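Final report, closing paragraph on structural work. Over the funding period we assembled a curated collection of sequence-structure pairs, and we close with a single example.
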Amino acid sequence: MNKKKMIRLTALVGVATATGVVAEANQAHAATTTTTETTNQTTNASVESTQAAVDAAQSTFDTAQTSVDSAQANVTSASNNVTSASAALSSAIANKEAATSENIASATSAVSSQAVVVASASQAVSEQAGVVSAAASVQASAQAEATSASASLSSSSANVASATSALSAAEAALTSDQSTAANNLSAAESAASSASAAVSSDQAAVDNAQAAVASAQAIVDAVAEVQSSDVINMSVAYITALKNYLANPSSANAAALQEVAKGADYVKELQQKFKSDASLDVVVDPSDPTVQEALSVYAVNLINHLRNQYGLTTAFGASANANVAAIDFVKKYYDDEDWNIFGTTGSDGKGHNKNGLDAYADQLNTSIAEDAGSGLTTWVNGKATMATTTLHNLLYAVYSDIATMLFDDGGTNNWSHAQSIFEDGTILGTDGFNNVYLGVAFDKYGYAHYELYNATEGNHLGNNAYSLDVQTAAQALLTNAQASLASAKASLQRMTTNLMVAKAAVVAAQNQLAALENSSANDLVAVTKARTQLASAETSYQTALATYKQKEEALKKAGDNLAAAQASLEAAQATLATAKAKLAELEETVANLTNADQLLAAAQAAYEQAVANLTTATGNLGAAQVDLAKAESQLALAEDTAEQAKVRAAIAAQVDQQLNGSTANDRQSAGQDATSLKTNGRALTATVATASAAKQKQGANQGRLPQTGNDDQEASTMALVGLGMLGMATGLYGYKKRKLTK
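Its predicted structure, as stored:
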């Protein structure tokens, strides 16, 4: 029962309860010999009886519900069976329509063809099974041989262990002095070997240092003459034309400058004036600090000579810090970024790395200008080829690049290289070049980079400045080489002395060992024998190991072959299974076509039976639902009756309690009042309201007025009777409403 329904049934209890309470009250007043115990027993028996009826109705309802659930399941199952039977009937009809003699003949032919396929696949399985059997036999044989080889290897290993133990025992028999002597000899020989290697290494260092001194001496002899002879002299006309152009870069001034400069022919003439000296043909490292110093001093001297001719008094400087910055910049922004400034032909290059220049200028917090030239490359048929890096090549590259910047720099460059050489305090229109230091570096493609830095106290680019006397730089190179030679000779002398001492120690150790060996010949013989036996055991072990590896490889190969054969067998078996499944499918098709009439009849009968079963199940469900409705109605009635009995018993118990506490006259008066109120609903309502108000007033005055039990009991009794009458009215309303809404 849901909550809404239970509320309605509870309201219905008021009718019987009010009537019963009034009757019992009248009986109590009319016959005072009736006890409250008898009344309570009667009402309690009624409660128990009605609750038993509820339990029985609930059981009947549960049974009916179970029957409905079962019947519903039967209907669902029967409906599914009808659907399945309908599909089977449709399939049988289609099969019947397809069961022509032509289709049967075609299906039968397909069965015959597929039987041939199955036979062929079966034969393939049989043949592959033979292959597997043979492979398994080979694998078993290989396993036996591998097992035997493993046992032989284990035996050889044991022999090696035994021989090793015997050798250890024999060596232990030698005296500690002999062992010490042998160790001393070994250490002495090792020291002698190291000393000999050191002597050889130092001798090579001395040879190299002597060669370096010879090269440095040649440079010293030739570089002074080169510096004095390798100068570029400009004509007065060129200087005048260049000044006019830089002051006013008009097209007329540019043409006049180009005419005076004489173009590439004059550059070649200047290049031919370069002093070529065989003493400069020594291979050097362009990044060597001494070579860097010589190159930057050489370049700055050439530029300062030109600036003097031009009439400028401020000179460029050269320093180790500027050279280090140039090398770092070229490596980072040209070599590492694969930035080929001229390309492979001179016209397909990327040009200056302007982003790199900006970034490096920010890093050093200074102004930077860059000139670049062909450097170590010569142009042959439009292609660049790397020349041998000698001091001659490096000096010629610097000389040629600066000459080219002066006299062959027209066109799109607008004489910007010459402008960078002859401006003062600014380069290419950019201020901040008041203290210019030059750094020279070569990239990995062989091109030369001339980095012009403005040196300040903050960036330290002018620190470690070079003397602009090239002779001083060349002399420093010679001095360094001579110092290296002297150091190498001193080291060689020390190592030679050490070698002599080491050789003497070897002779002493050999003599000590020989003396001890003569006194313990037997022990030495035992050691020698043990060593021979160990060598033999190790040889046998290596032979057994080789055999074991060979057999293991053969076993692996046999296993692989067996696995491959088994895989082929499984594939053949799968093919056979597929062929058999196809054959069974075709045979089933032939059977279906041949027995189409019987299959159709069976499907029709199954469908009709399923429909009949569904009809029966549906009827059973209807009957079960009717029984469930009856059981539900009976359960509701039983629950209503039980609720009435419970309320009646409760009211009776309360009335008896009130009556038992009053006098006989009070009970008679209460009975008469109850009878009167039973017949006059309006008087009851008014009385109850008054009594309730009086009781509330009494409660309010309690504590300051004397109380009598009779008044309170009478008010309580009359209130209870009024409550019963109110229940009667609401019960009738609720009953009518439930009937209407059910």
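The radius of gyration is 63 Å. The beta strands are 317-318, 368-373, 377-380, 383-386, 425-427, 430-433, 436-442, 448-454. We thank the funder for supporting this effort.
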